[in-house]
Amino acid sequence: MSITLTRLLGGHPVSLGPSAERNELVEAQTSNPVAEQVTSEQAERFVQRFAEAWSGSDVSRFEALWTDDIVLVQPMMPTTVGKAACSEAFTGLFRLIPDLRATVHRWGHTRDGVLIEFTLSGTFGGRPLSWPVVDRILLRDGLVAKRVSYFDTAPLITKMLTRPRGWRQLLASGFRPSFGSVDRDGR
């Protein structure tokens, strides 16, 4: 099995290099017994809905993408389980960075979901803040059953720590970063 990444607009294939043909790592990381076989058309429709949800900070747009038993795994936050807990986490995130938006660059269809490469951007401490992210999303009935987010926390933490104007915003938001490690299974 190989994964072809495709630009969201334009449909141009992007090479993943020689390791893309082996793909054992990606296959191992996307296995989930609760996920289902996903067609490329279903994946594309989901990516469009994902991009639309990230065009604003309305948590209900994200809730519409999630199963009731969703699991969100990401750096800087504890693993979150269930739609209510995930809504609370996103509400805190949008209190911290109210203008947080995502720009999707490319995506790839997997057997049971999609990989999405994007940039998150917003304002923290009165200055622009952005960081690149890749989400591995497992779908069930067209909805997110599990999302594991990958990004380098060091530059983000450095930017946040060097912007004291944002510290009060951090405290008031209710957002509480967690700095434990996350493995590929979200533990």
Describe the structure in your own words:
With 187 residues, this protein is an alpha+beta fold. It has one domain: Nuclear Transport Factor 2, Chain: A. The protein has 7 helices and 8 strands. Strands 2-1-5-6-7-8-3-4 form an 8-stranded mixed β-sheet, with helices on both faces. A hairpin with a 2-residue loop joins β6 and β7 (127-140). α5 runs antiparallel to α7.
Per DSSP, what share of the residues sits in E-state strands of 2 or more residues?
25-35%
Characterize the overall form: globular
Order of helices and strands: EEHHHHEEHEEEEHH
Helix run count: 7
Which structural class fits the helix and strand makeup? alpha+beta
Distance between the termini: 26 Å
Radius of gyration over C-alpha positions, nearest whole angstrom: 16 Å
Oligomer: single chain
Strand order of the largest sheet: 2-1-5-6-7-8-3-4
> What is the residue-mean pLDDT, rounded to a whole number?
81
What is the count of distinct domains?
A: 1
Total number of strands: 8
CATH uppermost class: Alpha Beta
Q: Are there runs of 5+ residues with pLDDT below 50, and where?
A: 1-33
